Amino acid sequence: MLALENYLILSAILFSIGTIGVLTRRNAIVIFMCIEMMLNAVNLTLVAFSRYLGNIDGQIFVFFIMTVAAAEAAVGLALMIAFYKNRESIDVEDINVMKL
Amino acid sequence: MFDLVWLIPLCPLIGSVINGLFGKKIKNEKVIGAIAAGSVFCSFIVACGCLMQLLSLPGEERHFEKTIFTWIQSGNFKADIGFLLDPLSCLMLMVVTGVGFLIHLYSIGYMHGEEGFYRYFCYLNLFTFSMLCLVSGNNLLLMFVGWEGVGLCSYLLIGYYFHKKSAGDAGKKAFVMNRVGDFGFLLGLFAMFWWLGGNHNIWTINFRELASHAELFPVGGITTVICLCFFLGATGKSAQIPLYTWLPDAMEGPTPVSALIHAATMVTAGVYMIARMNFMYIKSPTALLVVACIGAATALFAATIGTAQNDIKRVLAYSTVSQLGYMFLAMGVGAFGAGVFHLMTHAFFKACLFLGSGSVIHAMHHALHHEHSDADPQDMRNMGGLRTKMPITFWTFLIATIAIAGIPGFAGFFSKDEILWQAFSNPHHGGANLLLWGAGAVAAGLTAFYMFRLVFMTFFGTTRLSDKAFSHLHESPFVIVFPLMVLALLSIVGGYLGVPKVIGETLGGIPNLWEQYMEPVFAYSTEYMKHAGAHGEAHSMAMEWGLMGVSVLIACGGIALAYALYIVAPKAPEKFVATFPALHRAVYNKWYVDEIYDFMIVNPCKAFGDFLWKGFDVVVVDGIVNGVASVVKGFSGVLRHVQTGLVHNYAFSMAVGAVVIVGAYLFS
User: Fold this and answer.
1) ipTM of the complex, rounded to two decimals
2) Distance from CA of A60 to the nearest CA of B (A)
């Protein structure tokens, strides 16, 4: 069985990639996928600790997070479609109609 | 019937609410008028019942209090919505509802076709409600509510023709001057409550409780202060010097309003209030002297102005001020009963005079309208010879004029003569008595003069209208002349309630019903004067007969002078004016009192108000408010740039924030 550190390192790497993706990419869908990746990195940590500590709570947390992520995906995609219909673009740089 | 006393003020209130809320939809003048007059008539019936029951009781038990509910209760202070029935309030209820009903009836005819017919009757009923609250309330605070209410209705009704600037101005003037008086009323109320509570731990504003503690008030001192404060209130409401100038201007309102409010009822509120508080006034010789002097001065002063006015309503207005002066003269010489008696007889003949003048104006208006003339229908110089065209108006007007002039046999003679006699013989003012009597007697002569001048100019001689207009003159409809006839009748018989003792005894035991009726109300004052041992010099009956003869002679002299100047030699007044132009101008312009007030009080107040507006309000208050807003705006202008609209910036700042928080958590 792999040691706890391995899971945590993988999780940290995935989280960092997700963060950098959110900060640098301009395509809204890519940003959205990066956010999903960050969430799943956290899920991985929770599952790893749950297993390590022999406590089921962490896994229940994960179920909740997945549910929320699913809802988020639905809402987020709907927003993007609506935006694309208006602007023919899903570039976040174009989302600035509220700017003075 | 006593238990139903609350119905008396309630009926007009209901009428007012119905006409105010639904009058615009009802539209039908007959229905609106019936609601308004009917509600006052209901009150009149109840008031009659109360009077009957009151009279069936023996003298000392003639009082009744009905508390509906406690209005305000705070610590020691308690005010009820409660009604007091005693001979004084019962009489006032009768006068207000009785005369008020006749004037409502008259208004239906007079206001026919006016725009805002329902509004007029809503205000008129509201006024009746307030006045009934004022006279039937059992405590000073409820009285004050009525006091303010009549002031408000007066404002609304004077400004009834609000599209005319002069009417609006007159309304404002009346309201503001009344407020000055109300301020005095409130100060008096506070001073009395505070002094009685602080020194004797008796916290009350109930009339009967106050009267039962009357012996606690010292002679002079605080009593004088309280009495003078209340009197200031009375000068405002009852149009006495120095606050009388609003009343002549109030003639801008419709004529029935002048009759109801500015002659018969509201302006007598001050007299009623002093009669109600007689147990305090009797203990303050200074206050009594002030009241008597102001009353006598007003009676004389207003009478002089009345002699030179040409507007028929203005003559009557100054006459009202003058007659109110008589009532205060009576109060000031301790003859409370006589003052209230004059109040009642004056309500009859002055209402008759005003309504009669309204009938004349009504007819003149129509006649001039036919001719498309712009001439003023209220100016007596346009009238003359109306006697033949309007016989009922003429005869009723003549009867009321004879009554006000003080010719024996008519109501005004009995009340006015009683006041003059009391002014001469009272034990309060010593040497000043002769002066007070003299002022009253001269004013009586002037009254007879200007009233008959009015009658001669209006009804006698040849007409100054064109033939065409004159042929269009006609008597007013029945609904207008009926109240005139009733009031004229009352102007004759009203006086026989109070036949002076000297006449009654001579003619063989005619009792002075009035004195017997009013006796319980003024019992304390009468007792107090007996104990004080203040008996005026004993005056013989011959003296009283003599004075009576003098005042009748003076009145006849006034009439004769008017006859000589306006019937026999109509050119004489013009010659007089030409001989003394300055005097005539001064009298015609009301001794320039309005101008003096403008110069001394109104304009400085306006200037001060202007300064507060432009100097303080605009610069300081607005400056602070706008300053706060500008500072906030400046800051937000800077902070605005933080929101770039770039999603990456937001995401980056979030990430940095998260890192900082985690970092701080780890390294702390």
Assistant:
1) 0.82
2) 24
